[in-house]
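Thread amino acids onto this structure.
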């Protein structure tokens, strides 16, 4: 059975599909890297820009990363207005007038200038509804741009260098060599390592300006590490607070419980063995309890209780060999 479509419906369908017979230009925002504090230019390029009579474009960006300065009608499209007075939003609109505009593929339609503050942000087309749309000439019928993601390509802005690093041991003992490794992306050409507090030394011929230095920490405690990488006069830093915890092997902390055999109760996160000199400090969150017999020379090499307030419990016998 063939279903008849009312005449007015046919007219509507013909009108609707007729107005979308031409595809909209593909409008592309680039990926731009920059140095914080610099001015960047973001070119908007177009492909398939043929017989265009009208333009309506809207884009958005993160105002903590970018500040709008101005924009230039690079293509010379007549009657074009570019408005960036609303922070985080730029609108581009205009009608060609008495002729359709053609641009070569890859042409720069407009160029937008920003101040880059640091961090990363997408520069996105706001494609909801008719916020992004092209029309033909002379009828100014809207052009096909479905799906929107095919015709409006978003961009990105980020730092020239993605600064990052790692350390081979986050819980070293004093005097133990720690290897630092630069993980920075963007091919840096210079490095500067800063570590606080300053109770450390660079070793094995390395220094603060090396890409992958080696360090010995000379005092127990937490260390904050900063790496500044550079390229073409741009310096970008990453800081990791309290990144290194230089620990004392065999020092009781009691951070988790009173149980001697829990690694997290020890400064170096390791239960003592027969080579470990154990120190119980004069104050702690939990005093240690050893369940069973504790033999000096077996469960630890030596045992020191610091100060008159330091104490521990052994549920069995405390055995001190005559050799100790």
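Threaded sequence (324 positions):
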């Amino acid at each position: 059975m063939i279903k008849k479509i009312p005449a007015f419906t046919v007219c509507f369908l013909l009108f609707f599909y007729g107005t979308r017979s031409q595809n909209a230009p593909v409008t592309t925002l680039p990926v731009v890297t920059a140095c914080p504090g610099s001015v960047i230019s973001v070119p908007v390029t177009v492909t398939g820009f043929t017989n265009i009579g009208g333009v309506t474009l809207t884009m958005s960006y993160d105002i903590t990363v970018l500040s709008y300065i101005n924009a230039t009608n690079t293509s010379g499209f007549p009657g074009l207005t570019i408005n960036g007075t609303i922070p985080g939003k730029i609108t581009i609109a205009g009608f060609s007038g008495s002729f359709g505009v053609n641009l070569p593929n890859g042409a720069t339609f407009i160029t937008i200038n920003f101040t880059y503050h640091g961090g990363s942000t997408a520069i996105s087309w706001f494609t909801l509804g008719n916020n992004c749309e092209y029309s033909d000439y002379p009828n100014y019928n809207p052009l096909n741009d479905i799906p929107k993601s095919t015709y409006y390509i978003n961009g990105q802005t980020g730092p020239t260098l993605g600064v990052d690093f790692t350390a081979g041991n986050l819980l070293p003992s004093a005097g133990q060599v720690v290897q630092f490794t630069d993980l920075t992306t963007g091919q840096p050409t210079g490095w500067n390592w800063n570590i606080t507090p300053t109770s450390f030394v660079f070793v094995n011929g390395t220094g603060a300006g090396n890409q992958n230095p080696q360090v010995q920490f000379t005092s127990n405690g937490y260390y904050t590490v900063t790496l500044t990488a550079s390229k073409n006069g741009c310096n970008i830093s990453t800081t990791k607070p309290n990144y290194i915890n230089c620990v004392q092997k065999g020092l009781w902390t009691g951070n988790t419980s009173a149980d001697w055999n829990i690694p997290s109760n020890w400064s170096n996160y390791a239960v003592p063995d027969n080579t470990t000199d154990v120190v119980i400090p004069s104050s702690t969150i939990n005093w240690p309890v050893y369940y069973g017999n504790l033999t000096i020379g077996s469960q630890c090499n030596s045992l020191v209780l610091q100060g008159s307030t330091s104490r521990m419990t052994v549920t069995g016998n405390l055995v001190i060999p005559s050799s100790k």
